[in-house]
Each structure stands twice: as structure tokens, then as C-alpha cells.
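Sample log: DNA-directed RNA polymerase sigma-70 factor.
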Amino acid sequence: MERSDQELMRLLKLGNELALSLLYERYAPKVRSFLNSIRLENYADDAIQDTFLKVWYKREVLNEELSFHSYVFTIAKNYALKALNKQLRVELMDSLETASSIVDSSNSDSPLLIKELQELVAQSLHNLPEMPRKVYKMRREAGKSIQEISSLLGVSPSTVENHMNKALNQIKKDISPIFAIAAIVSLSDSFLRF
């Protein structure tokens, strides 16, 4: 006879590892399918592992009256989105470094491309809503940590991260044209050398 989620949650609260294993077997494939459906498949393995670790560590405060299904899916989604946000920040920094190196390696137009890149970033910052702009400047220009910004602004660290992500995503979107220009200049300069 298959045990209900509520029964397994009650056993899990008591530290029963078999209950965790049974819940994992029941929900890991469903969570993977869900993450795949929202195009977060690259983060599925880590999200599933982290999700069930969190379930284990938080087992004593589980409310067996609530839906385990909703609980586990919410945790998995949040872990996957955090990983995705982190990946987007890394990609933005890589893009900025790539653009900078392309601009530096191109011909005498480099100062113009660098200046244009700086102007695009400044314009993008100017067009941001107040909070994302403030968070970006505190983080990137003043070098403050997420926790420091959170304390200074009186908001949660996750709110600070959300504002930072909003700023970075908008800047990336706004400066993408300069990458295309820099790549074309670099490629045309390379072809002219042959």
C-alpha cells in the first residue's frame, strides 16, 4: 500500500530517511519535468538536489496539512531561478569583458567604441527606475555587499538581488548593439590584415 504525502511528511518530521527517499522517488521526476517545461532544464539536477536537502533540513517545521507537491515545486523553482539569475550575471560580465577585449584589439576606432559603450551604460542606468539604479550604483560603483545594501535601504536581500538583476538585464539589453558593432569592426580589421 502506497503511503500518502501527509503520512510521509509526518514520518519525515520524525527524521525518517526512508520517508525522504520515498518522497524523492515520487517527486524528483515530476520536478525535473516541470523545470524542463519552463526551460530551466540546465539547472534541474542542482535544483532537485538542493530542494530535497532543504526539505530534509527543514523537516521539523513541515506542515503536513499543506500540500507537499506545492512546497517542493516552489523550492525547486526558486533554486532554479536563483541559479539562472547567477548565470545571467556571469554572462553579462563575460559579455562586457568580451566587448572590452574586442574593442581593445580593434584598430584606432577603439576609443570611440569604448566611449560609446560607456555612454550606452550611462544612458541605460539613467533610464532605469530609481531602485534598480540605486542598487546597481551601490553594488558596482560603491562596492557594497547585498547585505549592506539591504540594511541601508531597509529591504530584504532578495529584493536587492531582484533590483540588481533588473538593472543588469536592462543594461545587457541596451548595450548589445555595441557588441555587434565591435565584432564587425574587429572582424573587418582582421580581414583587412590578410
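Observation: The helical segments are 5-13, 17-37, 44-57, 68-105, 110-127, 130-141, 146-153, 157-193.
Observation: The chain has two domains: 5-81, 106-193.
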